Each structure stands twice: as structure tokens, then as C-alpha cells.
């Protein structure tokens, strides 16, 4: 099974309209949207100085991204904190992100937990997911898989794909929740429908092994293909095996050769043994093919491009 998703997301957004300061803020928003960041910065700064939390958050964002001003994480932290202290949920989340990654401040997991927690309590799904990861890894808090699962579920119920994948993994492994393959399949499927490659790969494995679903190699091949089409080397390798054996798909050495070739090209050089195994399987497939078939497989591999979107 795939490891837990390691995605951490910085919340980035356009300036948010504030009715009470509509005049200057609307002008700042229009300038921002047309890419005139210097004007947007000039207009938003006085509003932030006056204590408006949304202006403070956006000013922090501009410092973090270097928009209209030199990039300065320390300044970003300063303005995020001013907004976060007033309860601005995105500022709280971004402050947690910055402490978790040590941007402009020393990395401080306990401080990251504090700010993620505040944003999570306000229902922010990204904060719930990242806080769940910190509980799962024991970063800034004692390791607690049950608490991680609880937070993943909150984020998953709001549609967070990474949280759905990680919750599926916890049900697969029985960490923080009782092992339940059917429940794991449910969450992998939800994340898969959103295009999550790791969830699609694990769903393929569940069908291949008959865990939580009846064993179905054709269905496994279907999910491996979706993942392989996204450029995943493990799924490409598994598809190569399935085409070579005729398992869940018609036996096709041209396709087997193609997928093994792609897998070998995408497996990191540091994973020498896996790479060599893929290359050996290319040779095995080639030994069962005519020169014309080998040429066809090589052409298919050269012309292959990853697919985008769910």
C-alpha cells in the first residue's frame, strides 16, 4: 500500500472584498486581479495598518509571494499573526504552514499545531488534514493515530482528497481505527473520483487482492491504468505484469513491453533494484515478440504522455 499522503498546502487566494471598506479595497482588488501588485500593495497597506484582519491577511500573502513587494517571510508572518490573532481562519492556517516548514521563522511543530488547531476548530479542511498528519507523525504533539483519524475524517467529510486517501490507508492498516477493508475501499474510491493517483493505485491493489471487494483483476487493471495514465511508475509496472500474464486484460506483449519501459524510465535512479527489475521485464517481453512488435512498443512508449484531470 502507498504511504500516507504528504501534501501540505499553502492557502493562496485573491484579495477578498470587504464591504465596510469597499472603496479602497475594491480598487486594491481590481489592481490585484489585473496583475498590478504594486498598486494593490499601496492600497491595502493602510487598511492593514488600521487593523482590518482581511487586509492584514492579504498583506501577509503578498509578502509571502513577493507580489508588489520584495518576498519577505518574516514580514508575512508578522501580518498573518495580526490577522490570526483576530480569528482570521486563512491567516491561522498559513501561519501553521509557515511554522511547519520553517519559512521566515525557525521550524516549530508545536507552534504549527497551535495555529492549525485554531483553523481546524473553525472548520478549515486543509488545517484539519495537516493537523491530522502531525498527530499521525507525532510532530509537535504525541503520536496519536486515533486523533489523526478523527481529523482526517472531518477533512474527508468536507471533500479533501488527501484526507480521504489517508483515512482509507488507516482503515487498511488498522491504525487509529479498526481494520476495515470495505471502509478503506469506500474512502479510496472517493479520493479516486477526485483524481488522487495514490488512492487509485491502492484501489487497484484492493481489487487485485480481494480486500474489501470481491477479487477482480479486470477492475484492478482499470484502476492501475488510470494511475499509470497519470505517470505513476508502480502502476505502470503492475500493468506490464498484467499484460504479460493476460491477467484482467488480454495478453499483449506489446503493451507489456510499453508499460515496463515507461516504468523503468520513471523509477528514480536511487531505486536501482526496482529499475533493474523493470528493465529485465522489458527484455523478457521482447524475447516473446517479433522485431516489428518491439518497434511498435518502443514507439508507443515514446509517444505516451500523461493524462491530466480526474
Describe this structure in words.
This protein has helices at 22-33, 37-49, 53-65, 73-84, 89-101, 109-121, 125-137, 145-157, 161-173, 181-193, 197-209, 217-229, 233-245, 253-266, 272-286, 291-303. The longest helix has 15 residues, at 272-286. It is 67% helix and 0% strand. Helix 6 (109-121) runs antiparallel to helix 7 (125-137). Among the domains are: 1-122, Tetratricopeptide repeat domain (Serine Threonine Protein Phosphatase 5, Tetratricopeptide repeat, Alpha Horseshoe), CATH 1.25.40; 232-310, no CATH class. It is built from 16 helices and no strands. It has 310 residues and is mainly α. Residues 6-14 and 16-21 have low confidence and may be disordered.
Name some characteristics of this structure.
310 residues; mainly alpha; Serine Threonine Protein Phosphatase 5, Tetratricopeptide repeat; 0% strand
SSE order: HHHHHHHHHHHHHHHH
Tell me about the largest β-sheet.
none
CATH fold-type name of the domain at 1-122: Serine Threonine Protein Phosphatase 5, Tetratricopeptide repeat
Poorly predicted regions? 6-14, 16-21
